[in-house]
Each structure stands twice: as C-alpha cells, then as structure tokens.
Amino acid sequence: MTTPTKDVVIVGGGFAGLNAAKMLGNQAGVRVTLVDRHNHHLFQPLLYQVAMAALSPAEIAAPIRHILAKYRNITVLQDEVTAIDLVARQMVAKECTLPYDYLLLACGARHSYFGHEEWEEFAPGLKTIEQATEIRRRVLTAFEAAERTANPSEQRRHLTFVIVGGGPTGVELAGAIGEMSRYTLAQDFRNINPKLARIILIEAGPRILPSFGDALAGEATRDLEQLGVQVWTSSPVTGMDRDGVQVGRERVEASTILWAAGVTAASLGRQLGVATDRLGRIVVEPDLSLPNHPEVFAAGDQACFTHGRSTPLPGLAPVALQQGRAIAENILREIAGFTRQPFQYHDKGQLATIGRSKAIVEIGRLRFGGFFAWATWLVVHIYYLIGFENRLSVTMRWAWSFFNFRRGARLIVNKEWRFYPPANGKKRPGP
Amino acid sequence: MTTPTKDVVIVGGGFAGLNAAKMLGNQAGVRVTLVDRHNHHLFQPLLYQVAMAALSPAEIAAPIRHILAKYRNITVLQDEVTAIDLVARQMVAKECTLPYDYLLLACGARHSYFGHEEWEEFAPGLKTIEQATEIRRRVLTAFEAAERTANPSEQRRHLTFVIVGGGPTGVELAGAIGEMSRYTLAQDFRNINPKLARIILIEAGPRILPSFGDALAGEATRDLEQLGVQVWTSSPVTGMDRDGVQVGRERVEASTILWAAGVTAASLGRQLGVATDRLGRIVVEPDLSLPNHPEVFAAGDQACFTHGRSTPLPGLAPVALQQGRAIAENILREIAGFTRQPFQYHDKGQLATIGRSKAIVEIGRLRFGGFFAWATWLVVHIYYLIGFENRLSVTMRWAWSFFNFRRGARLIVNKEWRFYPPANGKKRPGP
Description:
homodimer, alpha/beta, FAD/NAD(P)-binding domain, 4-stranded parallel beta sheet, 10 helices, 25 strands
C-alpha cells in the first residue's frame, strides 16, 4: 500500500515558513506550496540597517523561489492570502485557491498603533523593505531640508528625530541615527551641523529594553546617550501629527517620527474563529497545531505558545526558525506513521546593538555588554545570514559595509517614477 | 585690487554638472552651489543593470554632497529648479532662490513619447533609479503572474516582453531580459519555462543601433537572436495599452512594455526664450555659452553643440563630462583675466553590450564585436565607475555581481509602504 502524496501549504516565507519548507524539500510523500505576498525572504534582524542606509535591500533579502529552487517538490507563488476555509481545507488567495492536507500559518506580524492607526502616516513602522526605504527617505530628506532652510525653528524641527518605542528595534534605530549624524554625515553639510541633531527615544514603560535585565538596559541607556540620544521613559505618546508628537503636556516639534512601539499578529489568525491572545496570535497546542485542527499549524509571530512557560515565547527569529522546523518534522513523522513530538524551544538568548561597537547580550545567565557583546552580535548575524542564502558574497558585502561604515546606500528614492501626468487628468492612477 | 568671489550655480548633478563642480572645487575666487532634485549622482550607463536586477541602486549611485564634501567652497542643495531669470541673473527653485554670476544648465534629458505621453503609464522609460526599480518590478512580476495562472493565453501574454526602441539602451534591456530568462531564472519556476519567454525589440527605423556601423549592428542583431530576442525593424509602434502594443496591423499581447525610443532635453531650456533644436536642447556657442548670455552655459544632454561638425554631439557620458570640465576651466580662465577657449570634443568612441560576453565597440576607425569588445566595455565602465566615486569597493562589488551573474537584486519592491488605510477615508494621501 502506498500513501498518496500530501499537499502541504505554507503561508509566509519568513523564518518559520522558509525553514519548514527547507525541511520538507525533496522529501517523499509531500508536495509543498509556499505562498507569500512578497517575492523575497527578508532577514528582518538587519532591516534597520537598510532603513539607516548602511545596507541595500538586496543585501538582506533574496527571492524565495531562488532559495528553494533546488527542491523539486516545492512550488512558490507570489500571492496574497485572503481567507482559510478550515472545513473544506482550502487556502483562498487573491489569484488562486489551494486545497491542503497540512497548512502552516506563518504570516508574521505588523505594527500596531494601539487604536491610532491614523498615526502610521506620520510614523512609519519597520517590517518590510518598503517601510525601510520610506524611513530612509524621511531621515535623509530631513537633513536635506534642514540644509536648505534659513529659518532656525524650522531647522530645529528638521533636525529632531523621535523614535517611539524602547524595544530592540527602537534602540537600534536611535543608535543608528545618532551614529549617522555624528560620524557619517558630519562633513557633508555647509549650513547645518548634523552633530547637533536631537534624537529622542520615547518609551511608555518605566525603562527601555524590558526583555533584558536591569543592568544591561542601564548600560544601553548610557551607550545611547553617548551617541547623543535622549531616552525618555514613562512617557506615553498621546498625540501625533506631521510636525511632531505630544508626550503628556510636552510638545516635541519633529519632522521625522519613527514607530517601534508595538506589533500585532497578521489578521488571518483572527478570522479563523480560534482563540487568540491580545496580540492577535493564535493560541497553539504543544505541537503548534490549532485546537481541534491537528492539520493546521501556526508558527513564529503568529503563534502564542505558552506550554510549560510563564510567558508566551517572544517574537524572535530563533523561535520562528525552530518552530518551522519542528512542524515540518512532525508532518514527516506523521506521514511515516509515527506520533508527533511536542515543540521544545532551545533558548539562544537575545541581543541588541547600539551603534558600531556597542551591544548587549543575554544568553541564559550570561549577560554582558560593550565591544565583546557587539562582536558576538556580529558573528551571530553573519552566521545566520550565511545560513539563509548560502552565499559568502552576501556576508562579505555586508561585512564590508559594516566595518567601513560609510553608509553607501544613502539614496533618497522617490515613490513616483512617472514624469508625464496621465492624459485623463486623474491623479496618477496605478498601472 | 582683489576681485570679489564669483557665485557659480550649477543645475544638475549628472556627468556635466558634477565634473564642472569638481574642477571648481577648492579654487580661489569662486563659490559654487550645485542644485539637483535628487540627492544622488547616477552612473547612468549601468542603470539598465539595476532595472534587470543585476545591481542594486546604491552600487551605481552616490550622494552628491558626499562626493563633493571635500570641496569647502561647494554647497549642495536638493531642490527642484523651476525657472531661470536671465535678466536678474537668478535661479528660482521650489524652496530657494539663488543669484549667480555664472550659471551652468546641466539638467539632462528625459524620455519623449513623441506626443503620446499617455504611453508612459504602459511603457516606463529608463532615466532614474525610480524608473529602473519600476521596470524591475514589472519584469519580475510578469514571471510571477505567469507562474500563477493556468490560462495559456494569459501565460503567453505575461511571458511576452516588448522593448520599444533599438538604440543602445533598448539593445541592452532586450539582451538582459533574454539572458535572465535563459540563465538566471531557468530553474526557479515549476509551472512555466522561463526560457520560452518571447522578447521583441521593436525599432521604427530600418535597423537597430543607427549610430553604429552596418556590420556591427548586424552582429548585434545576431547576438540578440541567440539570446532569443526577435528584432523587428521598420516597425513603428502605433498604439499601446496595458495589455500590449499595436505595430501597424499587428497586435502583440504583452504585459511588459519598456520604452527606450526617444529622449528630449529637460524643459528648463525651452523656457529661456533661446533657440533650441528639435530635441529641446539649447543651441550653444563654441564655448558652450548661450547666445548673448556669456555668463550662462549649457552642457550634456541639454546642449546642442554643432560647431565644426555635420551633426550635433550625441548624448553620451564622455561628451557631458568633457563639457562640464571645459566650462569650469573657462570660468576659472576668465576670472584670472584670460580669454575663453572654444570647446573641443575628444571622441572616445561608443560601446553597446548585448548580454554577458558580447558587445560592440567603435573607436574612430576601429570597429569590433564579440568577447574582446565586451572586455573593453567592462574595463571602460570599471574605470569610470572608480573615477566617479574613488571607491575601489563599489567596483569590487559591481564586478563580483557581474562575473557571478546571479542577479542578486531580484527584489520586487512595492510602491506603497503603508498597511493601515488612512482614517479620513481618502485614497492614501502622501505624507
């Protein structure tokens, strides 16, 4: 008796989806389709470096279909998933509908503005290449505008950068702007001194980097202040417009506001009618499957995994990567007639970097900061960057940019490519 | 007696403007302001490689203010020039107004659709980073759409690529798409065979590459056909929509149409009330100045220079570069009390490349094609790329991408970065 080939559909080509696909690649008994609305896998831990003009998008992203080209049983489709029919076991996307025997939901997370979605226009978040390019455009354009104007208060507004949210992303963005203004841009302007840029990191909670220990967070605060970043804690943002933010009774005039304050899981999870946590993540069983739907799994930022833990697993790349692999292994195990194994997370610790040679590292009880922490951060990221595309070159190019720190990618790229206004007089319709 | 410092305003940071600025940099007696609407200088001869996903934008572009940072007498402003007041000797831009003693107009050219400006929406041209990214997005998205659909006629339409215009840019684009479909993408798809892509290079005139000799153009045609490119000569395009082009009585269904057919000088020249040629270029005196306005110069794609020649100088990088330098030298000469020299062009020949190891070269009477021509093309471009930024790294990264030919930059980047629709219900207003 031969078992018929099982259709595995993976939604999302991030760390979870991509690693699940790799593990299922060229295995007997499974036919895999990976669907993502982007054509590329993104190495998100380095996305802030694209936003800060140190790296080009292509250096931290690669076409998903190229990464998976050697697995003949995997098809990659660029499409946007709109619904899951749990009863008919079908995934519905904009351009196609796919039946599945197994489904993996790994669509990740997006920014949450806590009910103030209108703030996105003023304060972009950092989850996609497009957003990183937009942030880069805004930061560099602010320096250009400051150079152009003779009005001192306008100049001050253009040279004020507000980052909302004191987690690792906020800290990395603030540190990178500090470094850019103090080192990279220092000599390039005539009418302004980029070193006088005012950079404010605003955190609603009592301290930055709440997932790290007290001592390390304190060290990070001092490192940030050396780069000219002011850290405001216990300061919830209460209002925002295109010219600044309101923090309690204080108004900060700033033409650049960046959002690193909160995330929420992709909305697909909430549409399924299963339990989700307050971040919209699907509450999963010990094997990462959905309650009453053992054929459907969730992983990464879309899963809320609490088994044997006091708090759910955090939204980190190692969590997503290990979950993707575990799900693929369980599928293969079940097809081979064995029982599933519960997921076990191997804690790899956490890292955050603050500028060129400062970072903080927590691995189990090991906690340290400074240059050695930064070197650890570098090695870990180089290692995973190699892992993700197996290309020495990506790493070499990246390491070069990093050591050189020239921020070679300081391009302001506009959104509009057309020159001639459209003939019908309408406001430039999309093609 | 000391002469007062002269204000030199340069409009445009292309080959002409940048090289004029470099020559005036740190010279006594001049204060230079360079105005460009982009923040970067673009190495345009390699722009088609960005469009074809072989290079990243940052590899062929660099911030103008960074290139000129070491010249303390040069200020760089990002602004869009709207008018020139020849009488008051003022340059008027959107954000500022600058008086000048000398003015250099070097705003380059843009695509011309010969009165069919509505075609731009269907067939982008290739002059800016934004356009290159748009072309890349369209070409890669067409392959994705073809992979997704099961409808054979739709698939055929998605796999048909039309390039309008048989000059060097059209030939380079067509060759690169041929190569991409035959080599780079060949293994990455499951439902389509990228090798079956239909690539049509459409030229209205009797043959492609009219600026080259007959024999070389014939060689280029054969090279293109080896890469699967069909060359249609004497075939003027008469109509166009988002699904294809009309060529006489023949309709070609194609979801990707690229425009490489014609250019026109920046409109600023036409607003001055001076004589322009049919391409909108300012007819200049032997020293590149405007008739009756010796203090105003035009260079590069914006100048029509005919002195001692049967045809005007073509729109090539070496022409612009030499003209920019010659103008700067004349300004310095005049300030020092000497008379101006007429401009003399030193012909460096012309090159066009057709894929990875084929090219054609014409230097004076020397005409050759094939691998040696391609090697010449490579050396010339590496040399000028070094020259333009003095960074070995740019060249190394570029050479690596080129030899490897993996087209590492195969990212489809969308235009929209927002996730949440704006609160007021309007269609996503700009910030």
